[in-house]
Predict the structure.
Amino acid sequence: MNECLLFCLVAVPLFGSLLLPLLGKAGDQARNIFALVLMLCSLGISCFLLPVIAGDQVLTVSVGGVTLFYADKLAIFMALCSQTLGTIIILYSFGYIAHYEHRNEYYFMVVLFLAAMMGLIFSSNLLWIYFFWEITAICCWRLIGFFREREYVLRADKAFFITIFGALMMLGGFLMVYGQTGTFDLLEIKAYLGRHPGEVIDNTAILFILFGILSKSATLPLHTWLPDAGVAPSPVTALLHAAVLVKIGVYVFARLFVATFTVDGIWWEVVPWIAAASALVSACAALVENDIKRIVAYSTVSQLAFILLGLAVHNEVSVLGGLLYILMHGIAKAGLFLCAGVVEHETHNKDIRRMGGLVKTMPVTAVSFGLCAFSVMGLPPFGGFFSKYMVVNGALESGQVAIGLTFVAGAFLTLAYLLRVYVRVFFGASRAADDGHGAPKEGSPIMVFSVALLAALSLLSGVVIGPSFQFAQEAVRQMMGR
Amino acid sequence: MSTENLMLLAIFLPIVLAVVPLALVKKNALAAGAVAIAASFANLVVVCLAYGKDAALTLPWAGWFFEFTLRNYQFSSFILAAAALFGALLSVYNTVFLKDKAYGWLFHAYFLLTLGFVNGAILADNLLLLLFFWEGLLGLMFGMIYLGHRDAYRTATKAVIIAGVTDLCMMFGIGLAVHLAETATMSQMKVPMEGLGGLAFVLLVIGAISKAGSMPFHTWIPDAATDAPMPFLPFVPAALEKLLGIYLLARVTLDFFKLDGGHWGSMLLMVVGALTINLAVAMALIQKDYKRLLSYHAISQVGYMILGIGTCTPVGVVGGLFHMLNHTIYKCCLFLTSGSVERQAGTTDLRKIGGLGRKMPVTFVLFIIAAAAIAGFPGTNGFFSKELVYDGALERHWIFYAAAVLGSFLTAASFLKLGHAAYLDKGRGDASKVKEAPAAMLVPGIVLAALCLAFGAGNAFPLHNFIQPVLGDALHGHDYSGFHFKLVLVGGSVAALLLAFANHYFGAKSKGSGLAAVDHIHYAPGLHQIYDAAEKRFFDPYDWARNVGKAVAYVGFGIDRAIDFFFNKVVVFVAGGISGTIRALHNGSHATYLAWTLAGLVIVIVACMAGRL
């Protein structure tokens, strides 16, 4: 029964997404509601499986002796994060995308995207991971180029090429792992390494897989496709950046490098420095940029580096911080993107130099943006406080004081660029040129509800930190075998 | 009710009641003010009931070192009581001051949230819980300052960035301290000063003194004096942040690190303290705005507290803590007089007011008492705490004592100027319609002024009940109450005051105005240029950091653009070149394709042969 549910968790949205364009022919409302139902269904199954994986229990789905899916605490944690945000984003899309063309394709791609993410999360096999990884890349390509203009399509191509390049490198790495262990199955690889104490996965394979991870998680130097992807419609940007796409990379890092492989210790020193460079360079770019979506996108690159740091420092504290960061950043950054979407939608402008004073006309969006920004900055009582503290202190636990200090510098910059964008957009006098659209007003009720919900979740995730913290802690113990 | 429950009430009562002003359908400042008064006085009752009772409480929170552990003991309950007293008095004052302001309801909500968070930080016995409440004040600070006026967000941003950066330093310091001590429980924390411990000490001190408003983390305070709503000033920079910052500084130096006088940490604190006293008061001297002048004094006076605690002598530490209490009392009172002047005269610009002494006699008397206290006039509370700090400073080195006395001279000089300009000079604006402030705004000031006198003549009460028990056995039975100071110290203080009177008399007489009474110092050769540069913000570390930050940001942005150029241009160019070459070779000529085939055949044969060999 539970195995069947796990299968449905992936299959329902995956195959259901195919019906969306057909339903769209019948009517927008039917398609929209069906998309929401698909996500709620997937989310409901994840919640149902929570008690099933209590303790050290895991759940596997096998077909013909081959393990397809594997659910442990890490997978459920990640699935819940993505599904919750995906559901809110679909809700927001009802208002945002209603006036654009190609809505059938939009909902099809978004739900397929989320389904592929579920498939990837629960994959118990390197090839399945690659398969779902590529589906997300294709969806991402279509969604970034959603508006069809030449410039947008070129940017979609750029994202596609960089992530596909990374994916092919990663596939090469997977083949090397197969060559070494004789299997693609994650559990069997882990068992193989358990039988051969002292043996580590070949460094070349690790390097190749890292290429894939860094390209998908938009980490320096493979990050520049992400700010360019800001041309996508806002819900898509939020989806790409905060909830799903960029988290795929760090999830696979956690799944492979932390939970499955035994790797050479040098990687626990090299990857944090890559992350540090990525955090600083992208934060600097966020301080200079003037396009609100690009700023938030650079912020994502910078914050992803914090997640990568947490996972790469490789101790219980830091990995716990990394997992919490995935949750807290996902909520808050989705909120920021959706707020940016409301602002863009209403002002027809993305340049923060031509904004200002919007707090008067868009108070809910302004407050929501502020709350989400405070969470990304890591201020209490928001959830971001806990994850930032854990990640930075994870570095201390490993004796990497210099890395810790570098990330504190990254946190300074986060504070600076987020405050800059916040006050420029929402405070002071309006600097908008009269473009004939009239004074901007608050977004549609469903859009405003979505951003307010994410802001409330950012606050709630900090005020009621216990359950998520303890679940993540158990997930870390399970991953690290402690 | 048990002390444990009282501790919880002290934190959650103001926070929960803060929701009421937010939830009001009609945003009524007066109704919100009534809620703030009720909550603040209830909070005062709660902390009074818990006063001095030892209690500890641990509740489930997150996990790892994140433990919701509270502790009520002598020191924390004293700070808590002081914060509650100021909260209660200010809630009354604010309700009147804000009753016609559109943002009043929101300010009251922030006020209560701040009170709850401060109580949380004081009661926390877990460093991470303290950090949670401590850093949580940042957002509230932004919220309160930006309410001032349309462009006050600039100052709010500056305040949050300065406080945020120092809080992040403190966060790292806490991380190091917890890592080294292997506990986050404050009552059990012992951190060595060597190696990383030294770094942890510095970072924790940065967090503490920044919260207290010390140099070089002070520059948002004078800006807030002009931009933030007036009630913010006595509440946050004058009272709560001083209490919180000095409380943590004392905990860090006395409890966590057991600092002794021979350590570089002690010297560092004394230097920061001495510099803060004099540089800030030197800036206060030339100010032409009532609130801005007071704000520089709010910075300067922190120097005495840091100097006192930094001496690591019992008398200095007692003096530093006593001065913290006294400062919050008289500085609050002074800010309240500035608020009354702002409300009644419409401005605090000293160039536009004057002669208010007759129009606002009660406010004037309150000003005189509080100004005498801050100047260290014998008999007032400020005199006694400063004498103790002088004693400790002289014990360490005469240069610190000299710096402290110089600060006293300048403090007295600037308050003589302020009082003369605002209350005694001929009116520079239309003061005919100015009336005394409403009684509800005067009562809190009267209570505070009375405390200035009571804690002076009766200094034994606060010293015996609040301050000395904090140090316990470290005092070795010494009692610092009463009036038994060394003659040389008292002589120095009195001399500084007499010199300040002489300076004022000379300056006011020669310029014909109280406002210009220190112009001979302001425009003295050498000083004039430095003051001009300071007024143009050349010495603002925030601006320096911003410029450095901008330069660094452009370097980072350049790296990012270079990478983007590589993908957008170089990769495209190389790929285009390769595909163009291949396309050129596919020219439709059979001869070319035959040559390709032959070349391929040769390569295969060579490869096979190489394989056999």
Notes: The mean pLDDT of chain A is 88. The two ends of chain A are 29 Å apart (CA to CA). Chain A touches chain B through 54 residues (CB under 8 Å). The longest helix of chain A spans residues 150-181.
